Amino acid sequence: MPIKPQRVFQEINDFFDADTVFVTAIGLYQIWSGQFQEIYKPRHYLICGQAGPLGWEVPACLGAKIARPDQTVVGIVGDYSFRVLMEEVAVACQYSVPYVLVMINNAYMGLIRQAETKFEMNYGVDLSYDESYGMDHVKVMEGMGAFGRRVTRPEEIQEALAWAVETSERERRPALVEVLIEREADAAMGTSIDEIKEPEPVEDLEEQPAATGEV
Ligand SMILES: Cc1ncc(C[n+]2csc(CCOP(=O)(O)OP(=O)(O)O)c2C)c(N)n1
Ligand SMILES: [Mg+2]
Fold first, then answer.
1. Which residues are near ligand 2, the ion (C-beta closer than 5 Å)?
2. Rounded distance, CA 106 to CA 63, Å?
3. 163-190 in b/e burial notation, b at 16+ Cβ within 10 A?
4. Where in the chain are the domains?
5. Which ligand is nearest to the CA of 48?
6. For residues 196 and 189, what is the distance between their CA atoms, to the nearest angstrom?
7. Bigger pLDDT: 66 or 202?
8. Using a 6 Å cutoff on CB, does residue 56 contact ligand 1?
9. Nearest CA to 92 among 68, 53, 54, 66?
10. Parallel, antiparallel, or unpaired for β 21-24 and 45-47?
11. Is 86 exposed, middle or buried (0-12, 13-18, 19+ CB in 10 A)?
12. Dihedral pair phi/psi, residue 167, rounded to 5°
């Protein structure tokens, strides 16, 4: 506690089978998804590509489920990406299209926050909330006729995923599992493979030779 993003994806890998179709768009949540998620079959990992249209996964889940009605469709969303096209959940309710959303909620536009650290800034990226302000994503889902559950403890994740799959299929509507994660977790990334920075020590990784920059 707070939950590390790695833990969420470990639970996702453990829970969903090889026939699950995953959809994701753009943000730290999507970079972690690309790094940590196990995908077994072609055309089972649907991404929006380099354009990075935030929020794309919410309507894309609709299309994926209509194309593959017998398979579980899971959208991996950020707290902000969800808000960009969340009204599409109401469309899924209207046309009885069930899917699961797993929200990686860091209460930040995390990708932008991480980029700002280079300039020692933390400006205009905060999405924090408490009882008196901010967005309650579970209530937003319920307000559109869908379902949601918030998870703050790692041991609750599996049960919440099972609840979301079962509820969404039974009720023919989307269900959200919102996981509150460590707010300022960074993703290991770089513009080329020898520039990747690990934000935290990697215990089981041997000391790597210094990058030479040669290709
Ligand atoms: C339509 C659109 N607006 C803005 C952006 C720029 N952008 C990329 S990621 C991001 C923040 C994403 O925040 P969140 O969904 O919470 O994901 P996190 O990085 O926190 O995991 C923004 C604003 C974009 N890619 N597309
Ligand atoms: Mg976020």
1. 78-79, 106, 108, 110
2. 27
3. bbbebbeeeebbbbbbbbbeeebbbebe
4. 5-190
5. 1
6. 5
7. 66
8. no
9. 66
10. parallel
11. buried
12. -65, -45
- The answer to whether the pTM exceeds 0.85 is yes
Mean pLDDT over the full length of the chain: 93
CATH H superfamily, domain 5-190: Thiamin diphosphate (ThDP)-binding fold, Pyr/PP domains (3.40.50.970)
Does ligand 1 come within 6 angstroms of the Cβ of 108?
A: yes
What pLDDT is attached to residue 131?
82
Q: How do residues 151-180 score in pLDDT, each as one tens digit?
A: 999 999 999 999 999 999 999 999 999 999
Read off the pLDDT of residues 95-149 as tens digits, 9 standing for 90 and up. Answer: 999 999 999 999 999 999 999 998 999 999 999 988 889 999 999 999 999 999 9
Largest CA distance in the chain: 56
Which residue of 86, 106, 111, 126 sits with most ligand 1 atoms within 8 Å of its CB, as the best mutation to test the pocket?
111
Please state the rounded mean pLDDT for residues 46-58.
92
Instruction: Judge contact between 61 and 23, C-beta under 8 A.
Output: yes
- Do 128 and 106 form a contact (C-beta atoms < 8 A)? no
Beta strands in the chain (DSSP E): 21-24, 45-47, 73-78, 100-105, 147-151, 175-180
Predicted confidence (pLDDT) at residue 212 exceeds the cutoff of 80: no
The reported pLDDT for the residue numbered 211 is 53
Ligand 1 within 6 A of CB of 116: no
C-alpha to C-alpha distances, 140 to 4, 8, 136, 145, 170, nearest whole angstrom: 25, 22, 6, 9, 20
